[in-house]
Amino acid sequence: MIVDGKQLRPIWLDADGRTVKVIDQRRLPHELVILDLTTVDQVIEAIVEMVVRGAPLIGVTGAYGVLIALHTAANEATYVKYCQRIAAARPTAVNLAWAVARVSAAVQSAVSPLERMAAAWREAATIDAEEVARCRRIGEHGARLIAAVSRAKNGAPVNILTHCNAGWLACVEWGTATAPIYVAHEQGIDLHVWVDETRPLNQGARLTAWELGKAGIRHTVVTDNAGGHLMQHGRVDLVIVGTDRTTRTGDVANKIGTYLKALAARDNHIPFYVALPSSTFDWERRDGLREIPIEERSADEVRFVQGLGPNQTERVLVPPAGSPAANPAFDVTPARLVTGFITERGVCAASEEGILRLFPEKK
Ligand code: MRU
Question: pTM here?
Fold first, then answer.
């Protein structure tokens, strides 16, 4: 994406073919820092510590991670262990294990060490390019939904609420939930985005607000609890969120708090769409609540808040030092609360039947 006149991506492979460059998303929006990943431990740490985050992006990082594993493992057993550790670095986003498995399979069909590296590079670059193309198509399909709301409002601004960051920072380019917003904006549709701050790590306030601001899109950051109130007062036309894993029946795991937005949207008769590339469907699982692994992260992410102090980025403690905290990072929104999915193949109903109509090869 173009940021301050320059082309920027959250990840790319350096010209040496073995260094992965990433934007350190922990430092945004106040500092733009690029990190080099050259070892498997660095790749895993970047995923776990959320230097890189968002389902499609951690998939792409895992894919390049397999290439680094090949370059650095002393033997086959170590390479296999490296791949297993990368795939397990975060449990909820299905893209990670999917991408690692895909690159590993491509490597398996090659013979010499050089051929194996070439195969890993090709497959990782393909996944990277495919995610970009999928997100662009999600944008085109989703923009039609926004255009329809705009027409129904006679061109008055369309108010869209989004949660977390399902933007290009989470996906390489375009984003999932933000792709329809970027495309609609390109088409000249008047819109405004309510950005949930998304505690505890504030991906909305830090990352989505930064992305939208850089793209010149009107937006307002709100507390996570404001959505229901805004909906009750007719100030939200449409909700669009991303997802980390969606079952074949349409249950949606996404950033903690998504479920409450879906409940409020249903109570207020507001369409609630989930935008996702096919790489985020889990074709094996049917019951999201019982079967999707929910990541529990450090309580310190809840206890401390990070922001810009007078001179530098600072972390401050919010609750009493002795109060315990808990940090489930995702929740599951049942399919019955989802109006539809925006995928690279079009928009479908949030049901197994609706999904399989777009992806008949998964029947
Ligand atoms: O914990 P994060 O920041 O990785 O969570 C990201 C989300 O919940 C996104 O909404 C999801 O990955 C979709 S990204 C297009």
Answer: 0.97
